[in-house]
Amino acid sequence: MRPQKLSSEQMLNTCALQFKAHGYAGTSMEMLAKACELSKASFYYYAPNKEALLLKVLEHTHQYLNKQLFTLDDFNKVDPITQFENMHRKAIQFFSYEIKGCLVGIISLEASSISEQILQKIRDIFQDWQNAFYQLFKQKLNENTAQNLAKISVADYEGAILMYRLNNDLFYLDQIKSRILRTLDQ
């Protein structure tokens, strides 16, 4: 009996894990096809090349993050501290799924060898994350301070996620959580 074909979403998630594990340069179309249980020839039906597939994966990831991680509730109903705690919990789950790390951060390390279109998608994802932090911080801080803390928080998270992947230690992410909670509790 033939194996059940993956849905488009399952295929994009499977490919995302391959890119997350091996990076862009280290992931081949053959590896992606095998992970999706397809022949390499039939895999090209879904994506003409690795770059086009990565762009689809990043677009899918961006949509997911915007819906699940970067969207905040009405501040009249849910306070910024609770919203940040929810965001942080979801971030830990997302960055721990099967393979520790941040797909977007891992791909961004290869900036010199990927297209401007992919780099722009990466910038857009980071910008949306930064904006979510800004929305939280501006509830308690002035505009300039909120913008600065939003920028540095994305950078801090990316560094902490990298250290989490390297050392299998949540310490770094816990420290960011504590720092942001102290800031929001002022």
Please identify the top-level CATH class.
Mainly Alpha
Order of helices and strands: HHHHHHHHH
Structural class: mainly alpha
Main β-sheet, in a few words?
none
Instruction: Give the overall form.
Output: elongated
- The CATH superfamily label reads Tetracycline Repressor, domain 2
Helix content: 55-70%
CATH architectural label: Orthogonal Bundle
The overall pLDDT average reads: 94
Give the strand tally: 0
Radius of gyration: 18 Å
Low-confidence stretches: none
Structural domain tally = 1
Q: Would you give the CATH topology?
A: Tetracycline Repressor, domain 2
* β-sheet strand percentage: under 5%
Structure annotation, total helices = 9
Fold and architecture overview:
There is one protein chain. With 186 residues, the protein is mostly helical. The protein has one domain: Tetracycline Repressor, domain 2. It contains 9 helices and no strands. It has helices at 8-22, 29-35, 40-43, 50-68, 80-96, 103-108, 116-137, 143-167, 171-184. The longest helix is centred in the C-terminal third of the chain and has 25 residues, at 143-167. The chain is elongated. The mean pLDDT is 94.
Q: Secondary-structure map with pairings?
A:
Layout (H helix, E strand, L loop, with lengths): L7 H15 L6 H7 L4 H4 L6 H19 L11 H17 L6 H6 L7 H22 L5 H25 L3 H14 L2
Helix pairs in contact: 1-4, 4-7, 5-9, 7-8, 8-9
Please give a quick description of this structure:
This protein has 186 residues and is mainly alpha-helical.
Relevant terms:
single chain, 186 residues, mainly alpha, Tetracycline Repressor, domain 2, 9 helices, 0% strand, YxaF_TetR_C
